[in-house]
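Objective 1b: paired records.
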Amino acid sequence: MSRVVIVGKPNVGKSTLFNALVKKNKSLVLNIPGTTRDRVFEYGQIEDKEALFVDTGGFESEGEFSEKINEQILFAIDSSDVVVVVFDATTPVSAQDEAIFTYVLKSKKPFISVINKSDVKNREFLYDYYKFGEAIEISAAHRRNLSEVKEKLYDYIESEEKGEFDARVAIVGRSNVGKSSLLNAILNQKRSVVDSSVGTTTDSVDTPYEFEGRKYLLVDTAGIRRKSKTKKSLDKLASIFSVFAIDRADIAVFVLDAFEGVTSMDKQIGNLVAKKHKGVVIALNKWDLVADKQKFDRYVKAIKQQMPFLNFAEIIPTSAVELKNTKRVLKSISEIVDICSQRINTAKLNDDLNKIIKINAPFSKRGRELKLKYITQVDTNPPHFVIFTNRAEDIEENYKRYIRNSMYKLYEFKGCSIKITYRNTKNDEF
C-alpha cells in the first residue's frame, strides 16, 4: 500500500486538504500512545486504490523552523511513495517553501505541487509559486480542483496485488532488538542499515524474497517505542509506520531480545499483533549472548506466562550474528501460511463444540439460559469462526478464552491467531 505524504509550511491548509482527500474529519485511526493529539494518519481510497495518507501538519516544530526544515518532515518525505507539496496563494514565497521543495526534489520522490486558497480575492502571490514548476490551483476548503489532484495521485498509487506473494511478513519489535540484523541474516546481505545505537532503522523496507518455491515480501520496520520515548516527532512517525507494516502483513516475525527478556513494550507489541489476528513466529534473538543455553524451555515458559495472548506462537532461538536458525524462521513462516489457510469441516466443528460445552457449560446470568447453538468457519487467513448463540452479550470473557484455548488444543493452529465471533440468532434459527 502506498504512502501519500502532505508537506508544506505551517498554515497553508495541509490538514484541510488531507481531510478532503480521505473524506473524513477524523484523521487518526492508528492507536499509538503519544499520537492522538497529532491527528495525522488515515487510510483513504482513490477509486479502486487504497493508500495511507500522512498529514505532517500535526507535527509542527516549536519555535523557529530549525535548520530551515525540521527532521520529521524530512523523514516523512523519505518514507513516502508520493509527496503532495502545498503552497499558499495568500502568502509570499518563504525560505520554508524553498527548503521543503528543494528537499522533495533531492529525494527524487514523485510529487505533486498544489497552490491552495487560489479561490480567494487576496491571492496576489499566486503566480510567484510557478517558479517551482507545474502546479494545480486548488481550494481545499471548497474542494476546488480536488478531482485533478486525485487523478494525478491515482497514477502514483500502487495497487495491492495480494496474489503476487504467498505472504507479506513484517519483522516487528521494539527498538534495538536486532530486527534489521535478523533480516540481513535471512537475506544473507546488508539490506538495512545496522548500528548498535537505538532506533537506527527509521523506515519500513520492503524486500521480495523466495524460499523453497514460495514468494514472500519481507518488511523490516522501525522499532516501536514506549510513550515516554516518543516525544520526538520522528519517533512517533517511526512507531506508526511500524503499525502500518503490521496492518499490511499476513504474518509477523516478532523479535524479542533473549538477553534483556520480555519488557512491558514487548507485551504491548505482542498484544497488538494478536488483536490484529496476524500469524506469528517469535524470534528470540541474541541467543548467542545467553550463557546457559540449556534453559531454553524456561525461556519459552516465561514468555508464554508473560504473553498468554501469544500462546499459539512458535518460539525460535535466533542469533543474527551467528546466522543461527534463520532458515528455521523461514520454515515456520511457510508452515503458518499452510495452517492459516486450512478449513475445518462444519460437522466436525459442531461435534467438537458440543464436547467443549459438556466439559464446561457457559454460565447463565440472572437465571437466563445461555446456549451456544452452532459454529461455522467463515474465512481463512486468519481462520475466522462464527458461533451462533441466543445471548452473545452475556458470554463472559473468561468463557470466550476457554472456547478459544479449547480450539487450539483440538486443532493444529500453531502460529495462527484464530478469530471467533459470537452472533445472536432468532429463537427459531438452528
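Objective 1b, second protein:
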Amino acid sequence: MSPEESAKIIELLQEIQVALQTSQDSKDRIFLYLIPNMGIIFGTSLLFFLFRWWHQQRMALIQAGLYKPWSFDLRAYSFLLGLLLTFIGIVITIVFVAVLGITLALLGGLLPFAIGLGLLTYYKLTKP
C-alpha cells in the first residue's frame, strides 16, 4: 500500500467520522426540538381537562341546587390593577433610565405604566 493510498483511506475515514458525528448531532437536535412541543401538548391537555372538570363540577352543583353565582366588580378590579401596574411601571422605568439610559429596554417599564394608566382611565370613565 502506497503512502498516497493510505492518506486517501485516512481522509475517507475522517469524512465518515464527521458524517456520523453530524448525524448524531441532528438526532440530538431533533430530540431537543421535541421537548418544547411535548411541553405545549402536555400543558394544553392539562388545561383542557382542568376546564372540563371545572365545567362538570359546576353542572353538578347546578343540578343539586347548590350553585351560588359570585359577582365580579370589574370597576374595583380595574382600579386596583391600574394602581399596581402604574406604580410598577414608574419604578421599572426609573430603574431602567438610571441603569441603561434611554434604550429599548425602557419599554419594559413603559408598557405596564401605560396599561395601568389605561385601567385607571377606565375606572374614572365608568360610572358606579
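The first helix runs from residue 3 to 64. The mean pLDDT is 89.
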